[in-house]
């Protein structure tokens, strides 16, 4: 099914600065798009409800309600909640960008404006907007077609065996068409998701990398300068043991001995923290490699470790559970020819699902302990609530040295037979609404089987955890 991306649209520009409105209007006026203007948040909300634009360019700093509040109110309104919002701001702090994205924004345009960038970004999100509308329309048409054909099938059951056979053949064709359509949807969503995620992560990593390297480099000098100052102070103490009274008082006031002992430790601590941040930036860059059309020799362990580093915040202990332990049993692996970005996404999907399963297991056991009679809550039952979550990762090469084997096992809640039977279906998920799309395993299976010519399967039992197996051929031809 071919879908034409329509580039016509209505753009609402919200800015209290007439100069900015003039610049943006001039940049967009020749595109053929209809341009609407609002000078404050309240006016933007009113126009959005009335005109229902395709894209909103929203200034952050405005009198009255600011851009963040305006975005929040638009997203809470059922009429305007699905309109894409692109923030316009001079703010460059990552926390401001993260706040905007958390409120539902799809992109940022920084001031001063670059005409080509503004047009390109608006055009891209307008294409995505129109494509989403068309997909929704096609989905509705397909559902109606399926409903109509099922009704026809019921009537055809009363006809001769020949007609019944024809209906069965037609139903089989329709089922295949539906499966092909779902696979196309999965592919489209996967490509768009990885493209957007890759651009976002690469942009954030780039913005953070320069100041981190600057701090890291200066901390080395600061450490040397600190040592020099301390050595100088010690020489003064050695050759001038009896300083003036005022100097003696100042030494006592600031506790000079403590400062000379503690300050190098502070510098060392800052140096370790900054190196940790630099390592995180490296992991983000490694994880977000977006070129999924080129096969590269990569270190499988590095990809797994980078993914674990990104998920580190989810592994730490919280009020609901203890820390999730990672056990690595890495074998000796040579670089493997594969697609780095997609393979990292497989690791991310499986490890994130393992964490979800462990957290669900903790919650289930905690609720069981709370509802169990205190007199019967013996050591075995209560100790199960205290058990640690654990994810074990093993890598190896088979005896023929032709296949790399990766095993990722958790001690989470496990899966029932019904869930295992349906887990390969696209869009099927056991997670609450808004937490899972049902595409993770389907996309992972597609990446391993179709792109790498490998295998992906799992074994699971309720209450016994789940173990995923990934096999990647070393010598097979990649797609």
Structure, described:
The chain has 479 residues and is α/β, with parallel strands linked by helices. The chain has three domains: 10-125, Rossmann fold; 206-277; 296-473, 2-Layer Sandwich (Heat Shock Protein 90). It is 58% helix and 14% strand. It contains 14 helices and twelve strands. The chain has helices spanning 18-29, 41-51, 67-76, 94-102, 115-156, 161-239, 245-254, 256-287, 300-310, 312-315, 340-371, 379-386, 417-422, 440-451; strands spanning 10-14, 34-38, 55-59, 85-89, 107-110, 296-298, 325-329, 336-338, 390-397, 403-410, 455-461, 465-473. It has a five-stranded parallel beta sheet with strand order 2-1-3-4-5, sandwiched between helices. A five-stranded mixed beta sheet has the order 7-9-10-12-11. Strand 9 (390-397) and strand 10 form a beta hairpin. Helix 1 packs across helix 5 (115-156). It is extended. Mean pLDDT is 78; it is low at 1-6 and 374-386.
